[in-house]
Amino acid sequence: MNKPLPVAIGHSACPHDCPSTCALDVEILENRTIGRVRGAAANDYTAGVICAKVARYAERIHHPDRLITPRQRVGAKGEGGWREIAWDDALDLVAEQFVKAEARHGTEAVWPYQYAGTMGLVQRDGIHRLRHAKRYSGQFDSICTNMAWTGWFVGAGAMRGADPRELSKSDCIVIWGTNAVATQVNVMTHAAKARKERGAKIVVIDIYDNATMKQADMALKLRPGTDAAVACALMHIAFRDGTADRDYLARYTDDPAGLEAHLATRTPEWAAAITGLDVADIEAFAALVGRTPRSYFRLGYGFTRQRNGAVAMHAAMSVPAVYGHWRHEGGGAFHSNSDIFGLDKSEIMGAADRDPSIRYLDQSRIGAVLTGDADALAGGPPVAAMLIQNTNPANVCPEQRLVRQGLLRNDLFTCVHEQFMTDTAQIADLVLPATMFLEHDDIYRGGGQNHIVLGPKLVDPPETVRTNHFVIEELAKRLGVADHPGFGLDERTLIDNMLKAAGDTEGFEGLQRERWIDRQPPFEEAHFLNGYAWPDGKFRFKPDWTGGQAPNRPPDSMGPQGPVAGLPEFPDHVTLIETVDDAHPYRLATSPARQFLNSTFAETRGSRSREGAPELLVHPEDALRESLGDGEIVTIGNSRGSVRLPVKVSDTVKPGVLIHEGLWANADFLDGEGINVLTGADPVAPFGGAAFHDNRVWLRTARA
């Protein structure tokens, strides 16, 4: 009988693009093998709970299809021909192609392209060090947070809020526009504690009956892109019924009288007509938060991924200001703590070399950039060479057909540094195998919580797999910039320097011993009871949509984005969304799947088996009108393209609304094209972003 391997427990942090940034306890079976992954019980936000997909991480790190050796394309792009290539030869090739691109078109012809496949500050952001040292094209990171962060910031002036652990001390928890069961499981941990210990009511606002809606005491299912109308009706009722906290409004907000006058016509009946909710449900919701001082609004990203998303966030966060919920522990609102951590990444990113005259390219508009759109190229040269780390644009980016068309250009050299043969890797010229988070040192900060968490190396990677940091350092040597600021330091030194600069005098060793640092501000600061982060200390019901700062404002060379003239003076519903018409009678949202995280985990057996296959949720009324049954194949499309999917008839969606949960690999679809064929890359006002859940489409059957 084989003896069981001895188990050691290592401590780390989840690296994935989720606000929870869970602290982890990892079973180490031997120097290259892990067992079970658990949430750290000692961390008072993670509280011992993690999502099932990360708990099964051994499936991913030990996957038989994991990339192990560098591969160079043989034959035409996308045909699937590869040969193994040695690491030194591969890196020499990248440097050679970058030098050739620079010689033809100048340094801006090289575009290092990255995002959030890992949220570790060293392995994610080191690519900028090479970018700045070589004067390669900059990247405007628009794809994920911009609408949500902008909407919050124009009201509060800072990216912080009520301690997320206060959820457990609330009497009413409003989970707005986020399927927390699938995407932020710890929100539900603390909400369930409040329900059990305090009898708290959980209200969920979303566009379909997802897993979080099914746990709600009050579930409000509205039409996509209409969240601001609900918020306006709540505030109208507060003024109408005398539940508005007028003392708080006078002390902490900019123009409560103007807001009240503006909202006079934003009645529950007005909101019901826009949202599809019943007037009685809106009234009941307002009554609940009106009589519950400890009402906590947990505002997600999903409801902001509309063309009016920044407006929706600002309207939703205005509600607790009208009711004065901010006064109370367990009350107020929270979206992101991204301002609180105090970590300066300048050395990691090589900020000393940054030249503001270098053009920036919009990450979300990669399709337009790579197909030569002059506006997207900011009047500069074509992109002739790319290094792609931590993202899978051929699958996750909008306007997928344009993205693939651009990546398949014969005059574009693309190197992808990846863990699996993703959709992007499959059409690259060179693919380099990347480490996973347990195989390298890094540091993490949790926007959805309050901790800085260390992720030290716990196991050795396969011998032929390399870190992001290694690739950047080696390319710097070959490209003649290894003597520039930030280069020549290992990961631990970069982390140590950053921590000590932030006042943590013991640096890496101290954090390794303590495992995490709690950066949550004091109650008065987190709840803005010392004033909001504007010069006058007032919450802004009347935001300066384009004149002020923002957490991710585009560079001055790009300026405000999208139809800024349509942004409202006060919180309001604005129809900047893609509204239905005779040719496009349905609204489509591309919501996250529980077992995937963006395109990550779509390769693991456990996640795939639990998700099943790509499908389209269709309301029974629409199915009856279209004569559809479960499993029937339909085509949905718009001006950007079309996708075929099997139907699942379900009353979890509203009539006229279609939901596809993903992201599935493109090859999992019937025609080899993914759902982002249908999503648009036009920038959202005022500072850009991709409106993934805001698509009007037609639907056709094979019989049509």
TrEMBL record:
Domain 4Fe-4S Mo/W bis-MGD-type, residue spans: 7-65
Entry keywords, A to Z: Iron, Iron-sulfur, Metal-binding
InterPro entries with a match to the protein in the record: Asp_de-COase-like_dom_sf, MoPterin_dinucl-bd_dom, Mopterin_OxRdtase, Mopterin_OxRdtase_4Fe-4S_dom, Prok_Mopterin_Oxidored, YoaE_C
Domain of life per record: Bacteria
SMART domains, sorted: Molybdop_Fe4S4
Cited PROSITE patterns: 4FE4S_MOW_BIS_MGD (PS51669)
Stretch list, region Disordered: 544-563
One Gene Ontology MF term: molybdopterin cofactor binding
Family named by the database record: Belongs to the prokaryotic molybdopterin-containing oxidoreductase family.
Protein name as catalogued: Molybdopterin oxidoreductase
Lineage, uppermost ranks: Bacteria, Pseudomonadati, Pseudomonadota, Alphaproteobacteria, Hyphomicrobiales
